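Dear H.,

Thanks for agreeing to be a second pair of eyes. The structure we're designing against is below in token form, covering all 227 positions.
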């Protein structure tokens, strides 16, 4: 974590080679137009603290899983991406998009801006399915063996879990399994306390577990009245 000693704003990251990643951040100050680096220039490096939140094994999946946990917990101001290891949420400048369109048109994409006929549209799903089957018959799937937040099925069709602390903090997870993995709790500890008035103690703080925003607000009110 980079922590701004002036305003308390933060940035969360992870790396299997922390020293190299640290140097990469510093070398980007004058060349990359992102919130963290602009703040370095505005406030000065002397007004930032570099904190190591947790050490772990040098495995990318473990690093990214922990990074996602801290992203969800701290909601850092300087991070423009909210999913560890993904560029989802990043937006290019209009000038960059225009350059990319030119770059990927013409010979690189011969069918750029052409219309697909109706027969081709009807056949395309079939061709896509056959192409994917053929590819994965000869290649290992890129998500094979990945667990937790890195798995493609992570949280799908699960019970949405919302935690409200006695201090007013909120955490939201797409399923009981995802909440269990990130909070390191037993499955039953979460499932048996959903939508009840019974708090769950996590690191010395009382948390109330609900499965909908409405009941979450009700339990937070009860928690405030019981303090």
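And this is the sequence the design step returned. I haven't edited it by hand at all.
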């Amino acid at each position: 974590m980079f922590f701004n000693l002036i305003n308390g704003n933060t940035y969360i990251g992870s790396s299997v080679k922390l020293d190299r990643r640290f140097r990469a951040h510093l070398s980007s100050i004058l060349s990359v137009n992102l919130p963290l680096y602009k703040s370095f220039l505005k406030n000065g490096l002397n007004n930032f603290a570099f904190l190591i939140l947790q050490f772990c094994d040098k495995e990318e999946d473990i690093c990214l899983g922990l990074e996602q946990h801290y992203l969800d917990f701290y909601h850092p101001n300087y991070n423009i991406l909210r999913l560890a290891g993904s560029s989802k949420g990043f937006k290019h400048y209009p000038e960059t998009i225009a350059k990319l369109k030119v770059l990927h048109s013409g010979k690189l994409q011969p069918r750029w801006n052409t219309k697909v006929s109706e027969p081709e549209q009807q056949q395309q799903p079939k061709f896509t399915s056959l192409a994917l089957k053929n590819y994965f018959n000869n290649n290992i799937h890129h998500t094979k063996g990945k667990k937790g937040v890195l798995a493609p099925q992570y949280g799908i069709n699960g019970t949405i879990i919302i935690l409200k602390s006695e201090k007013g903090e909120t955490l939201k997870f797409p399923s009981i399994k995802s909440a269990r993995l990130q909070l390191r709790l037993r499955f039953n500890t979460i499932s048996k306390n959903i939508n009840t008035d019974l708090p769950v103690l996590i690191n010395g703080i009382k948390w109330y577990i609900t499965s909908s925003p409405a009941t979450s607000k009700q339990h937070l009110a009860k928690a405030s009245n019981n303090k």
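Two observations from my side: The beta strands are 2-4, 10-11, 48-50, 161-165, 170-173, 200-202, 205-210. Confidence is low (pLDDT under 50) at residues 213-220.

Warmly,
E.
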